[in-house]
Amino acid sequence: MSHSFTSDSQDPVREAEEFLYILTHDLKAFARAMRTIPDWIGEDLAAQRIVLSTDAADNLDMLRDYARRLDDTLTALTGLSRVGRLADPPAMHALEGLVTEVCNDLPAHPALSHDIDCGGLSVTGPRNDLKRLFEAVLGNVAVHHDRDFGKLRVTATPWQDRVQVVVTDDGPGIEPALWTAVFKPLATLHPKSETGRSGVGLAIAQKVVRSLHGEIAIIPTEAPRGLSLLFDLPRADGGH
């Protein structure tokens, strides 16, 4: 597949992001083939009534797992490259509706109780980027929670012409020394084979917030466990 660049050569960041999108898009075709071919091999062997040795079967399963993780990583990097560059037109969105929609799609395990209090506030921005933001932040809570049951709280308050959002959970938390590092692409606190995550989620969250002229950071909490994440978004009514 061939592509041509449409980005302005005067904007190296935009050009790099477009190159990342093209690269990951093309590589995903190879990754998906790598996910499918082991199944074809298994079907061909079964049709010929050939039984693989335990070691050979384990190696085939390992190939499937690595191909899946490669595909997932490329998908996440493609999502990162889309933020801001392939965003929906800015529009007004009820914050509580966005958060509730994403919470309803979180995995069933661990069982997280959702406490959402957005004060009836609305924000302005591209719907797809805002969804990516909350999918990244809330999905991160679900993936890293170390108990069968947990609590997830999302609150929002007006702040000048912005809305400050705080996401708090009662999971294992993150050591303060790593509070900055976790926002870097492909950064994970645990092996990717354990979490099933690519380590791009918080990088996507940061990029969405910064594309909307805000900041995102982990903030101290008095609770013995858990984590609090603070970020700000444009207030739909401009603070009036």
Describe this structure in words.
Helix 4 runs antiparallel to helix 6. With 240 residues, this protein is an alpha+beta fold. The radius of gyration is 21 Å and the shape is globular. The longest helix is centred in the first third of the chain and has 36 residues. A hairpin with a 2-residue loop joins strand 4 and strand 5. It folds into two domains: 71 residues; 145 residues, Histidine kinase-like ATPase, C-terminal domain (Heat Shock Protein 90), CATH 3.30.565.
Helix and strand topology:
Blueprint: H1 12-47, H2 54-82, E1 90-94, H3 95-104, E2 111-117, E3 122-126, H4 127-144, E4 149-159, E5 162-169, H5 192-195, H6 201-211, E6 216-219, E7 227-234
Parallel strand pairs: 2-4
Antiparallel strand pairs: 1-3, 4-5, 5-7, 6-7
Helix pairs in contact: 1-2, 3-4, 4-6
